Structures are given as C-alpha cells and as structure tokens.
C-alpha cells in the first residue's frame, strides 16, 4: 500500500500504544492468545482505550469498538456494544459522536446505541439488516420465530427496541470522514448481512470484521453458523445445517486476506496482527472439526448426496445395514406401535400428526390393533407430538415419558427450543432413568437419553431374545443425530451422546429404532467405541476452535436461559423467574445476571442476582421483575445481562413477558 509504514514500524507503533494502556488491572484474561496476536482483554468489566495510531483507537470492552477521531473533538465509531465506550471518549478529547457504523445487527453489537442517538448520532447499518435495527418487533411478534421453528436466520440475538437508521452500508460503498477512508465489504457468514469495514488511516489498512474470526484459528461461537445449504438439487433447512454457514465464512475471510491488512479487529477477541496466518489457521481448524463431525453423522443416511465428497475417507464410520422389523411392530409416519399377542393391545410411541389417530382407528376397525393402552413420547419436536392432543381426546390411556422431557411437554411456554409444539401435553407418568415395568409379555425400561436433544427419552422393550431400543431421532445407521446445535448436543464424557453410547454398551440392544427410519438397525461394539473416540477427539478439536473454558459454551446457545422463558402477567404484578446457567467448565464459576426492562416502563435494570455455579451443573439465579401498573398490554422482550467467570456478556439472553 502506498505510503504504508514498514511492518516493523507498524507493529512497533501498535505495541507501543498497547503497552501505554496496559497499566490497569484487566478482569478478562487472555483466552488462547497465540504468537501473532495481541493478548486479548475483550470482555473486561470496565473497558479500556487502546491507541492504534494517531486517529484510530479501539475500546476494549465486551466487544471491540473502533474509534476514529478527527482531532477536533468529533468521532465515528465502528459498532458501539452496550454503550459504555461513551464514558471513555472524553479521554480522547471526543465530545461528539457523529456516526456509528455497524458490522451486523446482533444485540451485543448495538444495544447501547440509543445512548448516542439521543444526542443526534447517525447510525449506518448493513443494507440487508436494516429491518432488524428499525423494526425488531417484526421478529419478536412473529410466531414462526417462537413455535415449531426450523430456521435460525435471523438469529434470536436480535435487538428488542427499534433504532433510527440514517443510511445503509452495502458492498463497495466508500465513505470519507476526517483523516479516514472507509470501504464497505460484504462479508456474510456470522450473519447473512454482515459487513466489514476497511479503514485506511494514518498510512495503514485495518479491517473491522465483526464476528467472522475471534483469533488465530478461532471463532467466537458456532451456533450462529447453524444454516441450511444446498448440494446439487438437494437443499436442507437451517435445522440440519450444523456449521452450514462455514462456506460463507471462509469466502468472506478470503476476501479479507486478499486485501492484506496490517490488522484485523474482530468484534469479540484479540487484535490480529498476522491476518493471513490467523485466517489460514481458522479455515484449517474448521475443516478438521467438520470432518470429525461428518465421520459419524446420522445425516449420511438421510441425505447422502450432501456428503459425497466425504465418502470413503479414512476415519469415517461405515453406515450400518438395515435389519428386518420384528412382527410385533407397526410403523406410521414418525410413530412406532408395539403390539401385544394379548388381544392385539397396542403401545403407541409418538404421534406427530392428527392423521395418525385416524390411521390407528382404521387399523382397529380391520382387527389389526386392539385397545390402545399407552402412549410413550420420545422427544418434544412438533413432528412427534403435534397429534398428541387429538390422540389424548380419542384414546383413554396414560401418557408416559422421561421426567426431563415431561417438563417441556407440560409447560411449553416456559421453554424456547427448536421445533417446539405450543400446546401443553398431559403426562400421566414421568419416569426416572432406569425405571422398568411389565406390559403384557414385554419388559419395558425407560431411560433419559440426551442425544438429539437434552430433553429426549429412550424405551427398551425386551421379550425373549429381542432387546429393542426406541431412540426417537437420536441415531440412524449413519451414527448420531447432532446436526442442530440449538438442540443442545453436548460434548464431554458421560454427557450428551457419549452418555447415550455408554448406555448402548451397557444394555447391548439387538435392534435400534428411529422414528424416521422404516427399518431397524444396530451398532456393533466396535462402532460404539469408534463413535465414543470420535466424540472425545471432537471435544478437544472444538476446544481449539473457540476461546471458552469448554467448547459446549460456544455450541450450546442455551447455556444461559430464562425459566420460564415466557410468562403472562397483569399490570402491577410481579414476574418471578430464574436465569438458569449451565456451567460446562471443570471448575465452579461466579455468575451474576440482571434483566434490562423496557424503556417504556420508565425503570432501570433489575438488581444483580449473584451466585457460584458448581462445575458441570445447572443452577438458577432468581430474578423478580415488577410490572408497573401503568404498563400497556402487549408482548415485551427483556434482555438479560450476564457476568460469568471473567466473561462480561451484555444482553446475552432474553425472556418474554406478556402483559395482559
């Protein structure tokens, strides 16, 4: 670049600026800093200004905020986080922020913007995401983003109150302000409409790239990359697209690499002074992790054409053959029916559509089925329970399922999960893990089976030489159904699928049954060992890909969740809830949470609720929210600030209050 300082001079200036500002005590340690990166302090409680050059500084708070100054008391910002950067600007001689440029629409990037717009600051936002700034209620009020949802774009890390937008930023737009020239680059991946800002100032080229990268070889989190993709004529929804946005991320990173910047500034993470090396390491690590995922993916059975490039690769488990279905079973859609020799009595497993009820009645009329004596539910997804209401009206029999799943089925309003059915389901018998009983000639054993989702059950049916395990959607002949991060597929020993596979080793079923697979199948001992080794290796590989204390923090977006997620309250009443934190780390962590109340209520945030969360457990931190008597009826979304260990996470989760 013409007029650029040498690399040595540039790095000397950069490190000099950093060292000048490192006198304060940082609460955020370096999470995985590497050679070629500036040690990270993003996430600290107060934040600090790090000078980059004469006219450019970075505010290192929960996110990195770019500050371009003109030397006359005015500034432009790139993103603004929760707004606390405003308190640091006077130290730079800034008394007016003329404009804020946003890389993407997520709450943590923009939740403090109103602090600036109240003083006349103009907002420039990505063109494709303008509606998410100007009208976020269109998202929160739309039932398709609340119930039975299979798509995660846009993501729920959405603003809750509208912001005024002055203009949009789109590919190729050039902006000149003071000493800086700023070019807009479309860089989708973390969000569909994300942009990066190429800033040329003081003889250097620096790129603000949003959350495309965290550090050398690292991403901030993975659940935002859950996205459907196409191969040939086959296209899948976001629900099946684990890491499906990776190809967009790689293409966008490639665009940044070609520009040869001296410095990459991610929204979360470390200032990267060797961009090419950092990008190459990230692409390599994503490829390694995805290959390990595909090696035992159940999707290879459902959609083999999506994974043709992986066929025959070493380290990939061969698909298991289908087996004949024993005569005691019938299959209707996502429903398996166990039939007894005594009067053709039936135990039904799942009922995904009211039409299943009619089919069962027709089978009864033909004499193929006798009385319906029970309903077992494998998991909460709508394609397995949408017909249960009609079933329970029609057949007088108990509904049985695991106690973890029963909590979701009986009070769906309290949960926000993919594919969740909105109507409460009566559960007559919540079962404990390992509870067993006899039904006609069969021995039945209930298990908590946290595979495809944490809230999942399995039922073992034994008779003679048959040991039939009904696993819902947790396995196919291709392996494990962990294709949706939002389902909460945990990595680690004795959790998630590792726990399920350990159970298979213990009980050695002769047949496995998936609700979407017509035939039976089984895994050999060597298959189970292979899958458990894969998961153990994956835990280490994904730990390298993300900066958290355990990879589950970056894969399980519900590790912080409000319970109940949604509740109905009258004006003048008090909402009582817990913010449930899952500590995936191996050590206890101190946590604090508070709710941000709607500006229309005229009150500030709630007090902080604090506690220590033991390792590898969930713990609820209580909150009480007084709804003013003057509040109008309506649906209100309340973000939740989170401090967890050394992480400072503004508006990281949310809850909903329906004022009636």
Note down, in words, how this protein is organized:
With 660 residues, this protein is an alpha+beta fold. It contains 16 helices and 37 strands. It is 21% helix and 29% strand. It has a seven-stranded mixed β-sheet with strand order 2-3-4-5-6-7-8. Strands 17-18-19-20-21-22 form a six-stranded mixed β-sheet. A five-stranded mixed β-sheet has the order 9-10-11-12-15. A hairpin with a 4-residue loop joins β4 and β5 (74-78). The protein starts with 6 loop residues before the first helix and ends with a strand. The relative contact order is 0.09.
Global structural class: alpha+beta
- Which value, in Å, is the CA radius of gyration? 27 Å
pLDDT averaged over residues:
93
What is the β-strand count?
Answer: 37
**Terminal Cα separation, in Å?**
61 Å
Enumerate the strands of the largest sheet in spatial order, edge to edge or round the barrel.
2-3-4-5-6-7-8
| Shape, principal axes of CA atoms | globular
Helix content: 10-25%
Helical region count?
16
Low-confidence stretches: 1-11, 13-45
Strand content: 25-35%
Main beta-sheet annotation: 7 strands, mixed
Question: What characteristics describe this protein?
Answer:
660 residues; seven-stranded mixed β-sheet; 16 helices; 37 strands; globular; disordered N terminus
List the helices and strands and how they pair.
Blueprint: H1 7-20, E1 37-38, E2 48-53, E3 56-60, E4 64-69, E5 74-78, H2 85-88, E6 96-101, H3 107-110, H4 114-117, E7 122-126, H5 130-134, H6 137-140, E8 167-169, E9 174-177, E10 180-186, E11 195-201, E12 204-208, E13 230-231, E14 234-235, H7 246-258, E15 263-265, E16 271-272, H8 275-294, H9 299-302, E17 329-332, E18 335-339, E19 346-349, H10 354-365, E20 372-376, H11 382-385, H12 388-394, E21 399-402, H13 403-410, E22 429-431, E23 436-439, E24 442-448, E25 457-463, E26 466-470, E27 475-476, E28 479-480, H14 496-507, E29 511-513, H15 525-545, H16 552-555, E30 560-563, E31 566-569, E32 574-583, E33 589-595, E34 609-613, E35 617-626, E36 634-644, E37 647-659
Parallel strand pairs: 5-6, 6-7, 7-8, 12-15, 19-20, 20-21, 21-22, 26-29, 31-37
Antiparallel strand pairs: 1-16, 2-3, 3-4, 4-5, 9-10, 10-11, 11-12, 13-14, 17-18, 18-19, 23-24, 24-25, 25-26, 27-28, 30-32, 32-35, 33-34, 33-36, 36-37
Helix pairs in contact: 7-8, 8-15, 14-15
